[in-house]
Structure formats: structure tokens, C-alpha cells
Design a protein that fits this description.
This protein has 321 residues and is an alpha/beta fold. The chain has 13 helices and eight strands. An eight-stranded mixed beta sheet has the order 1-2-4-3-5-6-7-8, sandwiched between helices. The protein is globular. The N and C termini lie far apart (40 Å).
């Protein structure tokens, strides 16, 4: 995305570019004072750092804010996808939760971030959880994780028993079909159109708030960039990867959750079940909002985020649900 287009959402001097594992990556980073907690924002599938357009400024008063473009999305590189059983490609990657989690962890270590809150929406929530687990393993725990409508990954192999019989029966054929580049490319190109993007957003944002031309343009531009069909292929072939409840069961880092009550894809009932895990301190439900409440209803979500990120916040706040 040209600098002039990016600056329309964020000041151009916030935009940073670098490399990770020989791939170009992009992020934004706000001005900050020494010792401030870092809020590291992780977008979901098909999104990008600009998806936090309504949250970054609200969090900058007391925090350093970083929003990454995960590899394969936004203006980060989109290398060829390598699936299980395929020949190695020195330029390719196996898109996975661990790939993105290691991108997050390496970013934290490279920039010497010591007091970090990982905030993830949708699949970015699973990435945040896995990154927190890796940081624990390295004895560098994050301050907290905040999940915003975290992906539940209902199509994962480990959840096949929950699928209707016909879907389970047809699963082997589906898995073979979505490996084929001719099919995934055609499917992606049919979806990566402004009108389709807008209709998907209207499903994800039940109130219709914030579904505007700017968001459609940002998502469409990223979808039209070189390699976008490859990251799409990699993502839709994630049939056996980390599930949020499995990581939550192992995690010690405090986890807080924000959930749109009307999320059409990630049921609130599942999130309510996750409160049984010892690491989960809070579930705050945002009425009427959908899968991306931080963008759909920032006036409702930003105060919740600010409270959660405040290291001196009242312990009583952890009992809200």
C-alpha cells in the first residue's frame, strides 16, 4: 500500500517496515515513554494492522501501541504456501499458528519489549495465546492476553466428532480439493472483490457500524497484493493446528476476554465455557456487536481495553462477566 494511502489511517511516521526470516514485514508503532506497557495488537484472517484504526489512538495515552501485519497479510510479504507432503520450497512457508506466534515472539525479543499485553482478534487471538505460551517457555511471560472474539476453529481435525455426519463424511474430499491451487486461486479471486468484502463485513458487523469505504478499500488492497492467493491457500488448509481451549488449559499468563454478543461465527456460549480455565480472569460481553467489536463499536470496547490494560486496575474488575 502506498505511503499516501496508509497515512490516511495512521500517521506515516508510525509505519515501520523490516524483515523477519528473510521476509518483509510491516507494523505500526506509536510514540511512547520509557517504561510504558506495550499493547501488541494482532489482527485476524484477511485483516491487517489498519483493522485497529479505531483503537490505537485510544490506547496511546498510557501505552506504547504496536500493531503487526502477520506474514501473509496486510503489507507484509505473502510467500508461497507449503502444505504437508509437498516438496520444500526455499522461498515458501507453512502458514500456521506457530509461524505467526513465532513472528510475534521474535518481534518482542528483537525490540526488547519487557511488559507486553498481547491483544488478538479472531485467529489473532489463537496466535496471541500460542505466543504467550512460547514466552512462558522462554521464561519471558507476557503481562496478559486479551482475546477479542477468539477463533474457535470448528473445522479442525480435533473437532470432527462435533460435525454433522455428512460434513464429516465429505471431509476427506474437501481436504483434497482445497490443496489444489487452481481451486483456491479461483475461490479467492471470487471473494476478493469490494462488493463481496462489504457483504462479509456486514455479516461480521451486525449493527452495520464502521462498515465503510475506507475499511473495504484497505482489505481489498491487501487482497490484491502479490501472493495473497498463497496465504489464503495456506490458511484454509489449517486442518490440524492449535485450538484455543487446549492452550488455555496449559497457560499461566492471565487472560481476559471481550466478546461481541451477536458474533455470527464464534458463539458466545463457547467463550462462556472457557471461563472454567484457571488463567481466564474475565469475560466482558459487548451487547449487539459481532465478530470484530473493537472496530464495529470502539466507543464500547476502548474503555474496556483501557481498563484491562491498566496494571493498577481494580481487582474487582476481574469478576465482571
Amino acid at each position: 500500500m502506498p505511503a499516501s494511502a496508509r497515512a490516511a489511517i495512521f500517521p506515516d511516521h508510525w509505519i515501520k517496515d523490516g524483515t523477519w526470516n528473510n521476509h518483509g514485514i510491516s507494523w505500526i508503532e506509536t510514540e511512547h515513554r520509557k517504561g510504558e506497557r506495550t499493547a501488541l495488537l494482532i489482527h485476524g484472517f484477511g485483516a491487517c494492522k489498519e483493522h485497529w484504526r479505531h483503537n490505537v489512538t485510544a490506547l496511546t495515552g498510557e501505552h506504547r501501541v504496536v500493531a503487526l501485519d502477520l506474514l501473509g497479510f496486510g503489507t507484509s510479504d505473502k510467500p508461497p504456501s507449503i502444505l504437508d507432503g509437498e516438496q520444500p520450497n526455499p522461498e515458501g512457508v507453512r502458514y500456521s499458528i506457530d509461524l505467526w506466534a513465532n513472528q510475534v515472539v521474535d518481534f518482542i525479543e528483537h525490540h526488547g519489549l519487557a511488559d507486553v499485553a498481547l491483544i488478538g482478534n479472531s485467529i489473532g487471538g489463537v496466535v496471541a495465546l500460542r505466543a504467550a505460551e512460547i514466552l512462558e517457555e522462554r521464561d519471558q511471560p507476557a503481562a496478559m492476553v486479551v482475546l477479542i472474539d477468539c477463533a474457535q476453529r470448528a473445522i479442525d481435525d480435533k473437532r470432527v466428532s462435533e460435525q454433522p455426519p455428512f460434513r464429516a463424511f465429505s471431509r476427506p474430499l474437501l481436504k483434497q480439493l482445497v490443496r489444489q491451487r487452481w481451486l483456491t486461486r479461483s475461490l479467492f479471486l471470487s471473494l476478493a472483490r469490494p462488493g463481496v468484502i462489504r457483504r462479509v463485513l456486514q455479516l461480521a458487523y451486525p449493527t452495520g457500524a464502521s462498515v465503510d469505504d475506507t475499511l473495504v478499500e484497505v482489505l481489498h488492497r491487501a487482497a490484491r497484493s502479490p501472493g495473497a492467493t498463497e496465504s489464503f491457500r495456506g490458511f484454509i488448509n489449517l486442518f490440524n493446528d492449535h485450538l484455543a481451549p487446549d492452550v488455555l488449559q496449559r497457560l499461566q499468563t492471565p487472560v481476559r476476554m471481550i466478546w461481541g454478543e451477536a458474533d455470527p461465527w464464534e458463539p458466545l456460549s463457547q467463550a462462556q465455557q472457557w471461563t472454567r480455565f484457571a488463567c481466564v480472569r474475565e469475560l466482558t460481553v459487548i451487547p449487539s456487536l459481532g465478530h470484530c467489536p473493537h472496530d464495529e463499536g470502539p466507543k464500547q470496547v476502548n474503555p474496556v481495553l483501557q481498563r484491562m490494560l491498566n496494571p493498577n486496575g481494580s481487582p474487582a474488575a476481574e469478576q465482571n462477566s
